[in-house]
Amino acid sequence: MQSSDLNKLKIAIVGAGYGGAAAAKALSLLGADVTVHEQANRIREVGAGIGLRPATMNRFRQWGIFDAIAEVSSPSEYFEILTATGDPIMKEAWPAEGEQTHTHLIHRGDFIEALLGVLPEGMVRLGHRLQSVQDKGDSSVLTFADGTTAEADLVVGADGIKSVVRQQLFSDREPVFSGEHAYRAVISADDAHGMVTDDNLRMYIGRGTKVYLLPLRHRDQVSFDITALCPDGTWTPQVTKDDMLRTVEGFDERLVAITRGLDMDTVNIRAVYDIDPVDTWHSDSVVLVGDAAHSMLHHQGQGANSAIEDAGALADALRQAGSVKEALALYQATRKPVTDQLQAISRQGWSEDEIDDVFPGQKPAAAATKE
After folding, report:
1. How far is CA 63 from the centre of its chain?
2. In angstroms, rounded to a whole number, what is the distance separating the alpha carbons of residues 228 and 179?
């Protein structure tokens, strides 16, 4: 689209999480009039640490916000997978993207604050809980719970796994329970029992449990995550410390000691869900990004990265195509094959014997051998 057309474009983004904030930055750089509508009255990201891959960091460099992210993250050279008792299984450098070779480890809260911090004041409007979206073809109208409305040439649904935009316009299928729980906490590096000595991610696996140690050196902290099999699909289940200790039985005693020393008030406990692939992500004036489009399990660590890539691809498509409608089709054609594959491989249950196939798992091994 021509710059003059982009400058006239009014865009409403639903959701101020990773995907929404990244889309706001990328689309505002096109010159469009962007407003972000967030249901919460205060942005507060819970959870623990994540890794921002080289391709993601390159997007931040392109948008001029690399330093803002790097300032609150630690560069990591590789990841390592070990048995429950610490025997090495696999050690591999993060997949490079051009000259960018490091994955940056960051706390979820620091990440969303950094993203929102580079947006113009007033772009994000809090307390706007979406009630309905009316697709009028050339534009769409959003109605919020407080009775206010907003009309835009393009609506970007970045409202997460329980997306109202997706449910009303594209797919009413419910999220799918994985049969797992995730227990996440951020602890002091001093409480890691000497298990963290550098800036690299380590994962210990055994008996259906995966334990992640993700250093956050810039905070002098460690993200400690346990993913364990459990049939209880309650979104926020009630779990005791004894329950958690049972999931790490037989693991390295230091991991057991970390678990035993956790303050349960600081542990984020969630059942793990994703969604089935959505056939169509867009209409003429509405499009999905991030978890709203392709929520995936966390086994590949690609949820946030995929949301950032969506934002970049959407901005690229609007710049390249002749109209909004053409741009949304180009965006889906670019991103959906990638995220369909990531959803599938993230959902695949895997053991020590399957690691070569599914981790780092940008594609299934069978597909890789055909190329």
Report:
1. 19
2. 9
